[in-house]
User: Which sequence fits this backbone?
């Protein structure tokens, strides 16, 4: 049976990646999580918690829910345990394709920025459905790198972003998965599927997003695949670096940047 491996995470596990995830989580709390909250006493599974960047918000928004946060990487879990001290969170190492939980163990399942790294996202969703009680909900949040557009336009920046998309595809993932959330949830056997686009728009009037999202989240994410992209022959070093400079240019006062996340919510049928 295939499992989720550390190698499938195209962004790597160095300290800067952990910082980037924190920057991303902080910049997007209101956009992605203003409507994420679970009732007191409910059992919540956070599947693929990584370094705990989203766990912080889950625990704060649902302080009386019992949250079990799992990840395949002990490296990430060690960082998550350092970051999150909330008494309502328990961390556990587990593979999403071999979950150590009985059927119907949870009232709610939360999955954020995980499916994009999986070879079989529909199968993973089906397995998560099994540990969810009938009538329970699943919340899935994913990005879509194909939704990126910016000013000034740059073919070099487009090419650098395409390197990230290609490398993730070669690793078995799909960084364009946001547009697939509805059919994936539907095919996995969920009901009442509703997908809501959440748009990040950045311009000179949003200086906090320029730094936290354009520079320290998206541009840093693309820049993080520089070496593997060049080694794979996807782009020359000169053109990749020109693409990164073009992305940085969008953070100037007269630049703009746009990206769309997708948040899906569905129910396990009774």
Assistant:
């Amino acid at each position: 049976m295939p499992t989720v491996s550390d190698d499938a995470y195209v962004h790597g596990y160095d300290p800067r990646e952990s910082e980037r995830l924190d920057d991303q989580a902080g910049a997007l709390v209101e956009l992605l999580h203003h409507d994420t909250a679970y009732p007191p006493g409910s059992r919540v599974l956070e599947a693929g918690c990584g370094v705990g960047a989203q766990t912080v918000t889950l625990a704060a928004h649902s302080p009386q829910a019992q949250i079990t946060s799992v990840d395949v990487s002990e490296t990430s879990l060690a960082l998550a345990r350092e970051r999150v001290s909330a008494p309502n969170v328990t961390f556990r190492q587990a593979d999403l394709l071999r979950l150590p939980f009985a059927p119907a163990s949870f009232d709610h399942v939360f999955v954020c920025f995980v499916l994009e790294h999986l070879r079989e996202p529909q199968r993973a969703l089906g397995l998560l459905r099994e540990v969810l009680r009938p009538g329970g909900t699943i919340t899935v949040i994913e990005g879509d790198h194909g939704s990126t557009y910016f000013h000034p336009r740059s073919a070099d920046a487009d090419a650098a972003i395409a390197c990230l998309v290609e490398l993730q595809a070669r690793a078995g993932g799909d960084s364009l998965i946001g547009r697939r959330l509805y059919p994936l949830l539907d095919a996995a056997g969920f009901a009442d599927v509703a997908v809501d686009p959440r748009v990040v728009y950045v311009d000179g009037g949003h200086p906090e997003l320029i730094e936290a999202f354009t520079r320290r989240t998206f541009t840093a994410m693309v820049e993080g695949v520089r070496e593997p992209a060049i080694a794979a022959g996807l782009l020359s070093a000169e053109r990749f670096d020109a693409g990164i400079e073009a992305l940085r240019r969008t953070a100037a006062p007269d630049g703009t940047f746009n990206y769309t996340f997708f948040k899906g919510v569905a129910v396990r049928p009774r």
In short: The domain at 6-267 is CATH 3.40.50.150 (Rossmann fold). Confidence is low (pLDDT under 50) at residues 1-7.
